[in-house]
Amino acid sequence: MNAATGGSEAQSERSRIKRNPNRAAYDRETVNAILDAGYMCHVGFETDHGIVVIPTLYVRDGDSVILHGSTGAGMTRAVRAGNPLTIEVTHIDGIVAARSHFHHSINYRSAVVFGESKEITDVVEKLRGMELLVEHITPGRWEEARKPNDSEFVQTSVIRMKIEEASAKIRAEGPGEEPEDLKLDYWGGVIPVRTVLGTPEPDAVNEPNIGVPQSIRASIAKWNESE
Questions:
Q1: Residue 205 falls within a domain, yes or no?
Q2: Residues 42, 92, 194, CA angle at the centre, nearest 5°?
Q3: Taking CA atoms, which of 25, 62, 68, 105 is between 20 and 30 Å from 129?
Q4: Could you report the per-residue pLDDT of 29-79, keeping only the tens digit for each?
């Protein structure tokens, strides 16, 4: 996918899906929808000790992905050294139970993103990146909590990856059965999987006097509706 223009074909062999290519998509809308449906990704990068994959929070900002972490983290050091990042997001939608063990599977939506990554050093842009991340996960929370102080701001790294290439892969169907297995008296089908935000639990150490704020309610509504 050329993120600037969209496309129906992989931009290179790096992003081309070779197994079950019928489940592949390279258009911008499909990739963006998968990214926007979550806030936790896995980031892969090379270090002196080999390739490392870590989980972290993210938000899509147009044709870029914003990541956040510690200024001393390996991901930040990799970006400073000019090493590329790879971002992966997966949503599990169902457990597929077939009549044979071989055909058991998972229904899912996944996206893998490649591109140039840079640490944001401009103060205004960096603060905006922090706000985008907070607002993506908890809409309205930026104004309902204390903003970063100078020390916290300096300790936090905000990274922008320009989406130059990406691929999506989706499975959304029932079990694929061998014709002869359809006659077997075994159950086949899909167990739907949903991630649901539950009832907010106030801080037990210092319970606030106010009720559940709008940002928390908005977060629950946003992510439960997305499922």
A1: no
A2: 120
A3: 25
A4: 999 999 999 999 999 999 888 999 999 999 999 999 999 999 989 999 999
Structural domain of residue 140, as residue ranges? 21-191
Plot region of 189 (φ>0 → left; ψ -120 to 50 → alpha; else → beta): left
The whole-number pLDDT of residue 3 equals 40
Q: For residue 104, which of 174, 13, 20, 22 has the smallest C-alpha distance?
A: 174
The answer to whether residue 5 sits within a structural domain is: no
Query: Which amino acid is it at 58?
Result: Y
Q: Quick one: residue 14, left, alpha or beta (phi over 0 = left, psi -120 to 50 = alpha)?
A: alpha
Q: Say if CB 51 and CB 86 are below 8 A apart.
A: no
HEC string of the chain? CCCCCCCCCCCCCCCCCCCCHHHEECCHHHHHHHHHCCCEEEEEEEECCEEEEEEEEEEEECCEEEEEEECCCHHHHHHHCCCCEEEEEEEEEEEEECCCHHHCEEEEEEEEEEECEEECCCHHHHHHHHHHHHHHHCCCHHHCCCCCCHHHHHHEEEEEEECCEEEEEEECCCCCCCHHHHHCCCCCEEEECCCCCCCCCCCCCCCCCCCCCHHHHHHHHHHHHHC
The count of structural domains within the chain is 1
Residue ranges in the chain whose pLDDT is less than 70: 1-7, 227
Cα–Cα dist 42/58, whole Å: 9
Q: Residue 165: what are its φ and ψ, rounded to 5°?
A: -155, 140
Average per-residue pLDDT for the chain: 92
CATH of the domain at 70: 2.30.110.10
